[in-house]
Amino acid sequence: MIYIYRTLWAIFYIPIFLMECVAFVIGCLSYPFIAFVYYVKHGSTIGLKWAGDTIAFWIEKKYQNLRTYIETL
To answer: How do residues 8-18 score in pLDDT, each as one tens digit?
Structure first.
């Protein structure tokens, strides 16, 4: 049964990877606006916790947690 779960995880990684790519592009396009608003509010972008890969990193982290859960079964 673990082989079926691993196979399904690997097959569904392809659309997840494509979703990560789209999320990365959205993040890169939204970064200047977010940085602008943060700069106007705080006067600097030093404490800004947003980067272009924030959404893509979050998606990858959640999907890898699923892989870790599958391995514990």
So the answer is: 999 999 999 99
